[in-house]
Design a protein that fits this description.
This protein has six helices and six strands, in the order H-H-E-H-H-E-E-E-E-H-E-H. It is of the alpha+beta class.
Length: 157
Amino acid sequence: MQQPLAHLVQSAERYCEQNRQRLTPNRRDVLAILVDSHMPMSAYDILDAMRAKQPSVKPPTIYRALKFLQDAQLVHSIESTNQFLVCSHLDSPHQPQLLVCQVCGQVEEIPLSEHMQAHLNESAKEHGFHLIHHAIELHGICQHCQESSLSSNNHIL
């Protein structure tokens, strides 16, 4: 088992112990697919990858596994693109900010600062709203794509 997957499986097993659940083979397989992809994937992309191992697997199986992995805070949902990616900051509880590149589709996760979390909670509270969950997605162009664009423009000139 590769190191990132082993670490994630250990986290999933701890979550299962704490919540009296099981890390089923399907949950483990979905996690492995996401780790191997290195890119966000839609549920149907995951389904296609799972069908190589289990030809009869159905969409609800994938969605149930993804729900479990999200509840265990091992996977984040990119709501704007209906995709999922493995959490890259397992060692500390956090609210993620997702930096989504509009060119290549790469997503980088960065933890939301405590200051920003407090500000969001306070803003919600001022409006009589209790914040439970938030998804912050910032869309733009990653450094690699910016550099590629600059170098290709230089070639044109």
